[in-house]
Amino acid sequence: MSQWPICFEDVVAARDRIRSHLPATPLRNYAPLDGAVAAAGEAAGIRLLVKHENHQPTNAFKVRNGLSVLTALSEEESRRGVVAATRGNHGLGLAWAGRLLGVKVTICVPLGNNPEKNEALRGMGVELIELGRDYDESVEVAERLVRERGMRLVHSSNDPLVIAGAGTVALEILEDPEARRLDALVLSVGGGSQAVGALTVTRRLRPTVAVYGVQAERASACHDSWHAGRPLSTATADTFADGLATRHVYEMTFGALREGLTDFVKVSEEEIAAAVRLMIRTTHNLAEGAGAAGLAGVVRLRHRLAGRTVAVVNSGSNIDEATLRRVLSQA
Ligand SMILES: Cc1ncc(COP(=O)(O)O)c(C=O)c1O
User: Fold this and answer.
1) pTM here?
2) Nearest-10 Cα torsion for 214, 251, 91, 105
3) 8-60+160-329 and 62-153 have identical folds
C-alpha cells in the first residue's frame, strides 16, 4: 500500500477553515441531463447529480485548495507571500484567498495561456509572470522564484493542504441528502488533487462509492501511467480542457490514484466539447473543458453505470469566449 498523502481529518480541518468564506455549493439532479445520458438499449438510466463548483466565487473548485493553504500559513509564510504555477484556476483560487487574507500572490503561467484567465488574475492584483512552454515549465519558473525570493511554493497537487481543500468537494457531496444512495463519483484528473481528495473522503465515509478518473486523450500522462502501473510522461499536453493539461504524474497523488480509483478512462476533444454543450443545454450552466470532462467520462461509462446514482463535478466554467464559440459551433 502506498503512502496516502493526507488523512480524512485533514479534509475536515480544511473544511472548518474555509466554510465561513465558501458556503457549500449546490448538488442538483436534472431530468433532461439524465435522459440525455441514458445509454441506448439499457433498461435503466443513470441518476446523475451535478456538484456546482462553477458557482464558486472564482468559478472553479480550486478556490477551496487556495484558501485551504492560505488559512494554514505561518505568520512568516504569510509575510513572504506565495508563488504558484497554474493554467488559471489554481492561480485564481490563490489570488482570491490572497486578497481575502492580505497575502501577496505571485502566479506563473505559460506563454499563450487563456487570456481571460490572465486578465482575471491581473484584476485580482497578483503579480503575473508569463514564461515557459506549458504548465510543467511554469512550475520550473515558480521553483526558481522560491529559491530567489523565499516565497512559499503552492504546487497545484503536491501539497497536502491543497489536496485537503479539494477533498471538501466530496465531503459536501457525501453529506448531501441527495447523495444518500450514491454509487459512483466520476472526476476529471489533472494533477489529481480533486480525485485524491475525494478518495480520502469516500474510503473513510463510504467505501462502497466507486471513484472513476477521467483525462483528455491529448493530455493522458496520468491515465497512461495508471494503466501501466508506473509513471509515464507525454511530450505534449494539448487539450482545450486546459485545467487537465499536464504532461507528468505527481508524486503525492499518483500512488493514491493507483490504489483508489476503480477505473480511469480518457475522452477525446470532441467528447469533452459535446459534454460542454450537454451541460449548457440540460442544466443551463457553463462549463470549461476541464469542468465538463467528468460528464464526458460518465457518457463514456454509461453502460457500466446504468441503474446507478452517480455524482459528477462541474469543476469549473472559466472558458474563454473564442473557445466557447468554437465548441458551440461544432454542434
Ligand atoms: C476546472 C478544473 N477541473 C479539474 C481540474 C483538475 O483538477 P486536479 O488538478 O485536482 O486533478 C482542474 C485543474 O486545474 C480544473 O481547473
Assistant:
1) 0.96
2) 170
3) yes
pLDDT at 107 over 60: yes
pLDDT single digits (tens) 297-322: 999 999 999 999 999 999 999 999 99
Burial of 255 (0-12, 13-18, 19+ CB in 10 A): middle
Task: Determine whether the shortest distance from the Cβ of 290 to ligand 1 is under 6 A.
Answer: yes
Fold exhibited by the domain 8-60+160-329: Rossmann fold (3.40.50)
Report CA(257)–ligand 1 centroid distance (Å).
15
Give the start-to-end residue ranges of the domains of the chain: 8-60+160-329, 62-153
Tell me, using a 6 A CB cutoff, whether residue 58 lines ligand 1: no
CATH number of 62-153: 3.40.50.1100
Q: Hey, which of 315, 318, 319 would you mutate to test ligand 1's pocket, going by the most ligand atoms within 8 Å of its Cβ?
A: 315
* Element housing 207 (H / E): none
Atom of ligand 1 nearest to the CA of 65: 10
